[in-house]
Every structure is written in C-alpha cells, then in structure tokens.
Amino acid sequence: MDVFVAEFVGTSLLIAMGSGVVANVVLDKTKGNGSGWMVITTAWALGVFIGVVVAGPYSGAHLNPAVSIGLAITGDFAWGLVPKYVFAQVLGAMFGSGIAWLVYKDHFDATDDPGLKFAPFGTAPAIRNLPSNLFSEIIGTSVLILVILYSTDPVIEDGTGTPIGLGSLGALPVAFLVWVIGLGLGGTTGYAINPARDLGPRIMHQILPIKGKGRSDWAYSWVPILGPILGAALAAGIYLLLGAGGMV
Fold first, then answer.
1. Is 208 left (phi over 0), alpha (psi -120 to 50) or beta?
2. Which of 112, 117, 119, 222 sits at a 20 to 30 Å CA gap from 74?
3. What number is the average pLDDT over the span 92-112?
4. Residue 150: left if φ>0, alpha if ψ -120 to 50, beta else—which one?
5. What value does the mean pLDDT of the chain take?
6. Which one is the CATH code of 3-241: 3.10.290.10, 1.20.1080.10, 3.10.310.70, 3.30.230.10?
7. 48-84 residue pLDDT tens
C-alpha cells in the first residue's frame, strides 16, 4: 500500500470513529445520547488503535501532521515527505467525518442545537480564552509527541524502511497514550492535538448540507492547527536538548 493511501485510510478510520462517537453522545435520539466524556475519550483512543493497525505497516501511521512535523524536526523523517503525509491526513479526516455524518444524518436532522451539530466535526473550548486554549493544545500535543519520540527507532524493523510514526509505538500503547491525554488534558479544548483532525472535519461542516448547522467558527480554527504544531516543535526541542533519546 502506498504511504499516501495508508495515511488517508488510517486517518479516515480514526476520524470516522471519533466523529461518530461525538455524534452518538451529543445528537438527539441516538442510543448513546448523554453517555459522556469517558465514552468519547475511549472511542477516540480506540479509533487511533484502528488507524494504526491499518496504516502502521505501510506509512508508520502518523495520522497527524504534528507527528510528521515533530519527527522531521528531530531528523527521523524526511521533510520532503511531510506535505504528502499532511495532505493525505487532511483528506482522510474530511472523508472520515463525512462518513460519520452519513451514518448519523437522521440524528443531525433531529437535533435543533447548531452547537451540537458542530461538535462531531470540530473542537471548541469549554471556556473561550484563546491564549489558554492555545496553551492547552501545545501541552497536550507535546506529551503525545515526546512519548512517541522516546518510544521509536529511526526505522520500523520490517526490512522495508517504513517511516516511523505512531505505528512504531504499537497500536495498543498509542491508544492508551491518546486516551490518557484526553482524560487528563482534554477537558479544556476537546484535545484536537492533531491539525488534520480539526481542519478536515471543519471544512466538511462548512460544505455539507447540514440543516440548521450554524457557523463553522473559523475564528477559533487556528488554535487547533497552530497549537499542535507548536507542541510538536516543543517536544522535538526537548528531545534534542536532552540528547535525542538519552538524558545528558
């Protein structure tokens, strides 16, 4: 499988599960309505598990521009591949959120609150304070990337030279990593920790014919894009400062 296809498919699966669980919890007349934050964070974590299982052997399962950028900063991933990976991730996120919308379309139609209709697509802060929201995204993403950096080797040992990423952690450990970030640090902004995860679905919210959907809140959209990128850079800087895998 080509790395572009792997990143597209892996990210599509991740977002379909993530957008789907939010729809299940917040939209009216679903079986999971009101089931809460634990259900949301668990499904997002297991969505990462699914994406990593599928994409890991072929692309390293970055599934996140922050992962690609963080690895490129440390020299463990070629900068020339970053645009290809990011494009595939954004397209995959768009496709996955579109699938979730189709699955829950009747429930979108049955829901009156435009904020609830938006929730399965993009993140939004619990308290809108942009500097604080940005800080939350930086810290959450830095934890993600730092753990990945300290858990990877330059090449997956499969003899193919597959680029490293979430897949080199192993699907189950990375699911636990994303789960604990959501539980511990995600309550402020909804923990995008992934520019593609927010941008792709937000674009879909803008263009899909969702009745009574309201605004896509582009004024906030830069936070879940810039925050994860800065978080990746911070994690990479700490990793390099501490000796790229060995404390000095």
1. beta
2. 222
3. 98
4. alpha
5. 93
6. 1.20.1080.10
7. 999 999 999 899 999 999 999 999 999 989 999 999 9
- Residue in the structure block whose two tokens are 């189709």: 102
Number of residues that this document lists for the chain: 248
Residues 6+ apart with CB under 8 A from 247: none
- Convert the pLDDT of each residue in 105-138 to its tens digit: 999 999 999 999 999 999 999 999 999 999 999 9
Domain map (residue ranges) of the chain? 3-241
> Is the four-CA dihedral 189, 47, 62, 92 of positive or negative sign?
negative
- Predicted pLDDT of residue 71: 93
Enter the DSSP assignment of 166: G
Cross-strand bridge partners of residue 163: 155
Element (H, E) at 128: none
Residues forming a β-bridge with 155: 163
Task: Pick the closest to residue 117 from 212, 220, 206 (CA basis).
Answer: 212
Please report the sign of the dihedral spanned by the C-alpha atoms of residue 40, residue 104, residue 17, residue 209. negative
